[in-house]
Specification:
The chain has 1620 residues and is an alpha+beta fold. 50% of the residues lie in helices and 14% in strands. It is built from 64 helices and 38 strands. It has a 7-stranded mixed sheet, with helices on both faces. Strands 6, 7, 8, 9, 10 and 11 form a 6-stranded antiparallel sheet that branches. A hairpin with a 5-residue loop joins β12 and β13. The longest helix is centred in the N-terminal third of the chain and has 36 residues, at 171-206. The chain is elongated and about 195 Å long.
Length: 1620
């Protein structure tokens, strides 16, 4: 109602506009046109149309009509626009102007619909118009009948169609519509004539006496019925039959043709000729009326095949002489009218009922009548009674059963085939109807087809198909076979599936599956696949239902080409994302053409997805699908679930038939090459493999040949096979043109040959191969590997984790870190292992380091999820290491299973915590237990049954020892005097927190971590200590937890993410800051450069570089903006509790400016030392537990009780190591040449890389020397560590432990309680040799400096082991250990300089005594007998020394003694140290006394007496004071001193022969001097010359020594042989 009112209002407004805007002459016509035209519009169609547009449209239509003469039709397509049409529309308009005749609108609409052009609006108006004699339009009239006497009727038909941008493209349609309008005009114009002709034919039928009356009457009745508007007549023609010839001739009369048949050629002649040939005269008389279809669709009224009604004309003799043919369309009422009301049909129906011979009372009769009533009218007209009877009775016998039936009838002239199909209603779909239609079209080779479908209350649906066929085509078909084909097609897909399932699974299980899955397959699936494929898919889905996560099938349908493949993926829940699947397939070398997803919902509600991909393989067509199918499916599943990677390497799978794991090995090597900085990317390496499939297969064959545990032959044969495969690869390289690819392939060969072991063939617990790979490699065999080169390396690879473990030797240890450097984690680990190598110099194992990256982390993960994934990756990494590590059995080493080892036994593998893995030790030890690894929980130190480094504070305490040493040498006791500190870290951290509690006198001015900056410009030491202790004791703390009231004025805690920080006056003054506002990083940079006593690093990051380095060189991008240069630091001391806080060059630069620093690996070695003690103790105690003498609980209790003892041992090592650095630093200038030669010798031996360790070149050293800048502490730290490492290796390879003194050196590595309780176990420790050698090496280098052993070996030709034996002997016989300990107890009681002086005196004693032993006991170097030989005599001499010394020796002794006592050294220690100057001579004196069988004291007295009388003490001083410029001079000086000692001893023995019983030395000497007067004169003359020379040279010493040698040899002769 609303819209009708709207329309009325709009029309009113339109009329108003016409009145106001239109010309007066046009107003009436426009109003009449508007009223008529818009009356045809639905009110809703006018929605959104403006009055202006309606008015413009009317004006245009009026102009359109005026352009016509009223007789010719007009058709136009256009897109209305304001210019030039005067109105606008978003649609394309079709306007038609023609005579006002019927059928125009319907005929035009039919053609437009046939072309599937959307119609939005239709309006048709029949208008009364008045035109002038020349046809000009005068006016459009209204509805008043009285005014239309002289008017003509015209029509305007208006369509709005879907927008067509180019209306001109519709010219062909325009012409077609004009043709249709012409046909409509013909039909309408001839309709009266056709109707009159029909009446005449009725008369002719009445006069056909030859036709049986009842038939004639029925025909007459039908034609009369037809004339009663039951057919729309479209055309008429008459056919004449001429019998004058031998055979009848049919022609179409050219007269009287009406309607559509005016000019149209028909098949009437041919059809009638066929009837004449096939039907008898009687049969044609019985069929006076015949019915058929036209092969050409009608375009008038309805777009369908019109019907022919043909009336035959007979002469008086009953001969056919003609045929009237009417063509038309039955009106719609005919198709719904009961047949009994239609002549002809009623006769047929009655005949069929009679032929059926049924009782009307019976049910079947009623049903048959109903079938006939509903039977298609065309079939009733065109079927013969016999055909009709057969068909309808067959239909009646269906009796509402769910059957599919087909009934076929071909018309008598072969132009059409009619097919009636009955299908169950529940199976009928449009898709099914189309399928049946296609079957029929194919069988009958139909040119065109149409259908009608009838639905009723019946359970069956009837489809009537009319197929136009070629009458001249011979059709060959069988009704039964065709029906069966349709039955199969119309059989419900679900039913076919049920049948197949029963065949596959049996009736019970098949029916269950049918109920579960039958209705779940979508129509798209049923269209694309038959039930056979569905059964196969159900089998896959059942696997998913049983827990399988992904199922698949790779196949090739028969209809696809050889290069095409299909992949079906099955997944429960959601479909697999294409963005995830397609890259995998692309990387497998497959080009995806199409993807079709099908969702399957089961009866229980579960949803499954089937996704089918059509694709082809791009690299090769030479592959057998059956051979690669299983490998492909396995590989895809592993890639999908992350067990294998998705990258270009997977392209090899189909082309080479390699397994996913074999491809993974190639990928692993490629990724390892990436870590080695190989110049080619992983992607390019994969492309190289894909470009050379044959060579790739050979590379894998080489790997398998080398490592397969199942090999037919011995190792010698395996080696030959390896060589053969390698040669084939190298020969194949001749065909590789690209140099880069050639290099890649060669590198693969070298990598495989450098591989020593792999877990490639090991089985996982649940069966199958392990999802990760590990390779043990010999890095030195890999060309171009970055320096330094470890001895062994294990590389672990999987899509989930990737890592390396680098070892410097067979017995090596170091932490495993969780790295975040995916691209270059090996570079990170290599840098760390370099530091670890020198750090481990103090412990048994050499350096090792490992690192792994978790490759499947993502930004969406929570912190807990990241930690969980990290732990799982850590486990995989540990497993990868243990997989290929030997184990120790009860009697021998046990190889890992399924591992072919190309190296010697290698059972030592120890790991430790590092960045990111601090809490993972128990995890590692649980895996050690899982593998029954011999180390047990000694495998990873620091677990729950190990030493907690943070609780012990061992790392911080060890670094604090270094800090104390620095300050002590500056004369400051930081345990009793306040000192200022800036730190890196927070109190929640181990190293920082523990470190900042190691002195109550710390004044912490500032500290920072990744979150906050803490500033306290004027801290109160005691209060701040208590607050720091409180924070440290919290479970978790930050600087924000610091009590703000305790922070001095101007300080505070600031966020590092702040945009800026206001700088208080106190901060400005304390840190020398001029700015009033700084960014957090700028402030930190100022703090690093602050004037403080100590810079304490307990954090993570590199904060100081050298000025010669770039930030990029540092490799810590996060701290680039705050990093300071070493030369700009103003702190006095740096303590490096954390790793990598400074670069090595920064330490050197800082030290050269006067700063005091060691290195991180020196300062924080306490942690690694503690762990090593833990490991060694656990190895010992685990053996005790294993034999049942100790429970694990007792073991753990014992470990805990020894915590303090372990700490003491570790800190003792720290103390001695930094003391050793101080000692070598003290001598750095004096021994500059020695240190330089040490570096050169180490470099020549390949033991050190100057560039890698940032040691100065020879040129730099010379320049430094001229500037008075010897080697710095950081540089000396490196040399000390390498010296220990090399010596340790040398001792391990020797037979050092044969002597009990040396064997017992192992005791020093264990707490005293353990040694006392398990002495036998300590001596039989599995690492006894290594521990012993480590302890001895540390002791020697700590006490004697970095080049002691090398110089002794160089001077005497002795081995390192002999030097060690001599050293141990010297320390025992001279009781040096108690002296060293005594001196060390004087910390802060005497000056550091005095302590160092005493230490140097002991050092010189050891050097001389060791040299003496190496010279004089070369073949008797066993400490035990030597200690027994010399100890008592040296003790006796020690007490007698002060009284024996004379002259300058006595003066030197007294001077040293007095100085030491004056400095605060006790008298006894001062005496013993002062007496060490000549103490080494006691060895020679003892030997001389033994050889001469003289009194030891007499020999000693004479020795020193002669030294004083001959000024030998002065002479030795001159030799020692001589300037040494090269190594040869140094060796010469030592040789002169040795010769002098021997000569003095020989002189004493010679003079002893003149000693009387009264033991008067003066008398003895006088007699001896008298005996040697001439030679003594020569010596005195030589001394005079030496005294007269300011700087005696080595030539003079040589001559003088020669003179002294003559004197000594002369003294050895018996008294009676001496010349007088």
């Amino acid at each position: 109602m609303i819209w009708e009112n709207f329309k009325k209002s709009l029309m009113k407004d339109l009329n108003t506009r016409i009145q106001s805007h239109a010309k007066e002459a046009d107003r009436e016509s426009l109003i009449n046109l508007g009223n008529n035209f818009y009356q045809r519009f639905a009110a809703e169609d006018l929605r959104g149309r403006s009055v202006e547009n309606l008015y413009g449209c009317l004006c245009y239509l009026l102009r359109f009509m005026r352009a016509s003469n009223g007789t010719d039709s007009q058709v136009i397509f256009f897109n209305p626009q304001l210019q030039p049409h005067g109105w606008e529309s978003g649609n394309t308009v079709l306007a038609i102007h023609c005579r006002g005749i019927p059928f125009v609108t319907a005929s035009v609409r039919g053609e437009i619909n046939r072309r599937n052009m959307p119609i939005h609006i239709i309006a048709s108006s029949n208008l009364a118009v008045r035109r002038s004699d020349d046809g000009s339009l005068e006016s459009i009239l209204g509805h008043s009948d009285g005014e239309h006497e002289n008017s003509a009727s015209e029509a305007v038909i208006y369509f709005e169609l879907a927008r067509h941008s180019q209306p001109k493209d519709l010219d062909e349609l325009r012409q077609t519509l004009l043709d249709i309008l012409g046909e409509v005009g013909d039909v309408v114009d001839d309709f009266p004539a056709m109707n009159e002709q029909l009446g005449q034919v009725i008369g002719l039928v009445q006069g056909s006496a030859c036709v049986e009356k009842r038939l004639r009457e029925e025909a007459e009745s039908f034609l009369a019925w037809l004339r009663q508007h039951h057919m729309t007549m479209l055309g008429y023609e008459y056919l004449e039959v001429d019998h004058s010839g031998g055979s009848p001739v049919v022609t179409a009369s050219s007269k009287g043709r009406l309607g559509l048949l005016r000019d149209r050629e028909t098949r009437g002649v041919a059809d009638l000729e066929t009837d004449l040939a096939n039907l008898s005269q009687e049969e044609m008389q019985r069929r006076q009326l015949s019915f058929s279809k036209s092969r050409q669709r009608s375009r008038v009224h309805r777009l369908t095949y019109p019907d022919y009604v043909e009336a035959r004309v007979f002469d008086e003799e009953g001969v056919l002489i003609g045929q009237h043919r009417f063509i038309g369309l039955y009106t719609s009422s005919v198709y719904t009218m009961h047949p009994k009301y239609i002549p002809i049909l009623r006769r047929k129906v009655q005949a069929v009922m009679e032929m059926s011979n049924m009782d009307w009372a019976e049910h079947e009769t009623r049903e048959l009548a109903r079938v006939l009533e509903l039977f298609p009218r065309d079939e009733l007209f065109q079927s013969s009674i016999a055909e009709l009877s057969t068909t309808v009775n067959a239909i009646n016998r269906i009796q509402e059963r769910r059957q599919t039936r087909l009934f076929v009838r071909r018309d008598i002239h072969g132009k059409f085939v009619s097919c009636i199909v009955y299908v169950p209603r529940d199976r009928y779909t449009t898709e099914l109807r189309e399928q049946i239609q296609n079957i029929l079209r194919d069988v009958f080779q139909a040119e065109e087809s149409e259908f009608t479908t009838q639905f009723s209350e019946s359970i069956l649906v009837r489809c009537h198909f009319v197929l136009r066929v070629n009458p001249g085509l011979q059709l060959d078909y069988d009704d039964s076979e065709l029906e069966e084909q349709i039955v199969q097609a119309t059989l419900a897909w679900k039913d076919r599936l049920r049948n197949r399932l029963i065949e596959e699974f049996g009736e019970e299980h098949g029916n269950e599956c049918a109920e579960e899955f039958g209705a779940g397959f979508p129509p798209g699936y049923r269209d694309d696949f038959d039930s056979r494929m569905a059964v196969a898919d159900i089998q896959k889905i059942l696997r998913l239902a049983q827990g399988e996560r992904l199922a698949m099938s790779l196949y090739r349908p028969m209809e696809d080409g050889e290069h095409m493949l299909r992949l079906r993926l099955y997944h429960q829940g959601e479909s697999l994302p294409l963005s995830d699947v397609l890259p995998i397939l692309e990387n497998l070398g497959l080009r995806v053409v199409t993807e079709r997803p099908y969702g399957i919902r089961t009866g229980s509600g579960e949803k499954y997805w089937i996704q089918e991909f059509s694709m082809f393989y791009r690299l090769s067509t030479d592959f057998d699908l059956e051979q690669v199918k299983e490998e492909f499916e396995d590989a895809f599943a592993r890639i999908w679930f992350g067990e294998a990677e998705s990258d270009s390497f997977n392209r090899l799978l189909i082309g080479t038939r390699l397994s996913w794991r074999e491809i993974a090995s190639l990928r692993a090597y490629a990724r390892y090459l990436q870590q080695l900085n190989f110049p080619y990317s992983v992607k390019y390496i994969a492309e190289t493999m894909a470009d050379h499939l044959q060579i790739t297969a050979l590379i894998v064959e080489l790997f398998l040949t080398r490592f397969s545990p199942v090999f037919d032959g011995d190792e010698s044969w395996r080696g030959e096979r390896e060589l053969d495969v390698e040669q084939r690869i190298l020969l194949s390289l001749e065909k590789v043109q690209n140099l880069g690819q050639d290099r890649i392939i060669r590198q693969y060969v070298k990598l495989i040959k450098a591989t020593l072991r792999t877990n490639f063939f090991q089985q996982a617990e649940g069966g199958g191969l392990k999802p990760y790979l590990s390779f043990k490699l010999k890095p030195s065999a890999i060309p171009g590997i970055p320096q330094p080169v470890p001895m062994f390396e294990v590389y672990v690879y999987s899509p989930r984790v990737e890592g390396v473990h680098l070892r410097g030797g067979k017995v090596a240890r170091g932490g495993l870190r969780w790295s975040d450097r995916h691209e270059d984690f090996r570079t990170e680990v290599l840098g760390l292992v370099k530091a670890q190598q020198v750090k481990n110099a103090v412990i048994v194992p050499v350096g090792a380091k490992g690192g792994f990256v978790a490759r499947q982390l993502n930004a969406e993960m929570s912190r807990d999820e990241i930690q969980k994934e990290g732990i799982e990756c850590y486990k995989l990494f540990i497993r990868g290491l243990l997989d290929i590590t030997d184990n120790r059995g009860d009697v021998s080493v046990v190889r890992p299973p399924h591992v072919v080892a190309k190296d010697d036994d290698d059972p030592y593998l120890v790991v430790a915590a590092d960045k990111g893995t601090a809490t993972f030790s128990d995890i590692a030890n649980s895996l050690s237990d899982e593998y029954s690894f011999w180390l047990g929980d000694a495998f990873a130190s620091g677990g729950s049954a190990g030493y907690d480094h943070k609780k012990m504070g061992i790392t911080a305490k060890g670094a604090w020892v270094s800090v104390q040493r620095h300050f002590r040498e500056m004369g400051v006791d930081i345990q009793s005097a306040d000192f200022s500190v800036v730190g890196v870290g927070d109190m929640g951290g181990d190293v920082f927190g523990n470190g900042m509690l190691l002195s109550e006198h710390i004044q912490l001015l500032a500290a920072f971590n990744h979150l906050h900056i803490f500033i306290d410009p004027a801290p109160e030491a005691a209060a701040s200590y208590i607050e720091r202790k409180r924070l440290f004791d919290l479970p978790r703390s930050s600087w924000r937890d610091y009590a703000s009231e305790l922070i001095s004025e101007g300080g505070g805690v600031f966020d590092r993410n702040a945009k800026s920080i206001l700088i208080s006056p106190q901060m400005q003054d304390r840190f020398d800051i001029e700015a009033t506002q700084l960014t957090p990083n700028e402030l930190i940079s100022h703090l690093l450069k602050a004037r403080v006593d100590l810079l304490w690093n307990g954090g993570i990051g590199t904060y100081v570089k050298a000025s010669t380095e770039t930030h990029f060189d540092v490799g810590d991008k996060a701290n680039d903006s705050l990093r300071a240069d070493g030369k700009d630091l103003r702190c006095k001391v740096i303590g490096e509790g954390g790793n990598l806080g400074m670069t090595q060059l920064a330490r050197v630069e800082y030290s050269l400016t006067g700063g005091r620093s060691n290195t991180d690996f020196i300062d924080n070695a306490g942690g690694v030392d503690c762990s090593d003690h833990e490991v060694n103790i656990k190895i010992l105690l685990n053996a005790v537990v294993a034999r049942g003498d100790l429970t694990e609980k007792q073991r753990n209790q014992l470990l805990e009780e020894m915590t303090d003892s372990i700490s003491e041992l570790v800190l003792q090592n720290n103390y001695h190591q930094v003391q050793a650095i101080s000692m070598v630093e003290l001598q750095a200038e004096e021994r500059f040449g020695e240190y330089r030669r040490f570096i050169e010798n180490m470099e020549e031996a390949g033991r050190i890389d100057r560039a890698l360790e940032f040691l100065p070149s020879d040129e730099e050293l010379l320049e430094r020397r001229t500037q008075g800048q010897p080697l710095t502490r950081p540089e000396l730290s490196v040399l000390i560590s390498y010296s220990k490492a090399v010596l340790k290796e040398q001792l391990i390879d020797s037979d050092l432990g044969k002597d009990s003194y040396l064997a017992n050196a192992v005791n020093t590595a264990f707490p005293q309680r353990l040694v006392e309780q398990y002495s036998d176990e300590v001596l039989s420790h599995r690492l006894h040799r290594e521990i012993m050698s480590t302890q001895v090496a540390n002791d020697i280098v700590n006490r004697m400096g970095l080049n002691f052993v090398s110089r002794q070996a160089k001077a005497t030709g002795a081995s390192a082991a002999d030097v060690a034996r001599a050293f141990i002997t010297v320390t025992e016989v001279f009781r040096l250990r108690e002296l060293w300990e005594w001196i060390e107890l004087l910390d802060h009681r005497v000056s550091s300089a005095v302590q160092m002086d005493m230490m140097l005196k002991l050092l010189r004693l050891v050097k001389r005594a060791t040299r003496w032993l190496l010279r004089n006991r070369r073949h008797e170097l066993a400490p035990t007998p030597l200690v027994e030989e010399f100890s008592a005599g040296l003790e006796q001499l020690r007490e007698a020394y002060p009284a024996m010394l004379r002259g300058s020796s006595a003066e030197l002794y007294e001077s040293a003694y007095d100085r030491y006592v004056e400095e605060g050294v006790g008298e006894e220690l001062a005496s013993r140290i002062a007496g060490t100057q000549l103490a080494y001579t006691g060895l020679g004196i003892i030997q001389a006394a033994k050889e001469s069988e003289a009194s030891l004291l007499d020999v000693a007295n004479l020795y020193f007496f002669i030294g004083e009388r001959l000024e030998l003490d002065w002479f030795s001083g001159q030799i020692l004071a001589s300037k040494v410029e090269n190594e040869w001079q140094a060796l010469a000086r030592d040789t002169y001193m040795e010769d002098l000692e021997w000569q003095q001893r020989t002189l004493a023995v010679g003079a002893l022969k003149h000693l009387d019983e009264d033991a008067n030395l003066l008398t003895c000497m006088q007699r001896w001097e008298g005996e040697q007067e001439s030679l003594l004169s020569r010596w005195q003359a030589m001394l005079a010359e030496l005294h007269a020379t300011d700087a005696p040279d080595f030539a003079m010493f040589a001559v003088a020594n020669r003179e002294l040698l003559d004197l000594a040899q002369s003294s050895k002769r018996p008294v009676d042989q001496v010349e007088v």
